[in-house]
Structure formats: C-alpha cells, structure tokens
Amino acid sequence: MRHLDPDTLALLALGEHVDSPDDRAHIQACDDCSAELENLQHTALVARSTLYSGDLVTPPDRVWSRITDELSLSTSIDSAPVVALSQRRTRRWVPPLAAAAAMVLVLGGVGAAWIGLQPRPVTVLASAELDAFPGWTGSTGEAVVEEQPDGARVIELSLDTPDGGDGYHEVWLITSDATELVSLGVVHGSAGTFTVPEGLDLSKYDLVDVSAEPFDGDPNHSGDSILRGQLS
Predict the structure, then answer these.
(1) Which residue of 1, 18, 149, 177 sits 20 to 30 Å from the alpha carbon of 194, by its own alpha carbon?
(2) Which helix (H) or strand (E) holds 225?
(3) What is the DSSP letter of 122?
C-alpha cells in the first residue's frame, strides 16, 4: 500500500486543508498513516501550547548526539550531506529509536521550560492554633510560619472572630514571658499575610497574638487580646 507523503501528513497535523479526496480516504483506511498523523497533531498541540510560556531550555548535548548517531548524521551542519527530495521521500518511516530521540528533544525542551517556570515551594517552619480569651468565646484562629523561596519569613493568619466594631484587629509576636512584643500589622477580614522582621528570633517571640485595638492613636497593645497561640 502506498502511504501518504510525510509533507502531506505534516500539513494535515498543522490544520492545513488537503484537496485530494484520495489522501483523505487513505487516512481513514490506513492505520499506520492515521496513527502517525495523530502523533504529529499531538506534537503540534504541545508546541503551540508553550509558545508564550517562556524561553525553552537548551537540551543537553547528549540528546543531539544520540539523534545524530542514530540517523548517521555529521555533527557539523556545514558538512551535512544534501539528500535529494526524491530520495528523502522514499525513506518515509524514521527508525523507531530516532523518532523517540527526536520526541525527547522536543518534549524534553518543553518539559524543562515548564519545570523552570514553576514557582519554588515554600517551607513551613512552625504553626500555632490560636485560642480565644475570655470575652471572645467562640473565636478561633490559626497561624502558619512559612519561609518563601527568597528566604523571607511570613505568617499566614486565618481567624474567625467578630469584627473590630469601632476599632480594628492587630497582629503581634510576643515573647514567651510576655515582656516584649512586636507588631506585625492590621488584619483585615478573616485572613492576612504578615512579614516577620528579618533577624527576629521566633524561638523567643513564639506567641502569636491578635488584639482588639481602638482608634486612639496609641501604637501600644491595648491589653484586649482576642486570640493567642504558641508556635511549635
């Protein structure tokens, strides 16, 4: 059986129109051609989906060496032999190993680019369940200390408590003996992210506190704590 020319299959994979009824009929009847067309369409889809996802990472030299060895190609582009079009068309089926190596080259670059674009994971350093003080029964909260990829430490805070009314809620780090404290800022709503000051020793400032603060212009802790928990 005469198989379709590889150029025709490539055009079909790219969505180009083929005017020949015989070619269309052959695709429907030939399992080999339809399978190769499906593979080419998948490769084209992968390539299109990564056009705007960043620069591709250059594959290692060993990948190209494996391809050139399999296809008996010269490592120098300038000295590569010229193959006549008629001769090339008679060599329709690429050896399986060469096809697999070529696919590794394409998908390896795409995969490396995708991995390179993924954000580095954060590291959880500590956490605390926040317990309610008398007068704020029913309030709950949680604090998680995370180290960001750049080394910065943040506290991810979530809480369920009545709103501040005529005041607001402020987040603090307090020493175990409650003699020193540092304000991290105001929490709006039921969650917030707060940066831990660089160099602050969390083994010393290990109490996370949420207080109810009035609009009185006083930057000190009001003494009215809503929630508090110890990092561990």
Answers:
(1) 177
(2) strand 225-230
(3) P
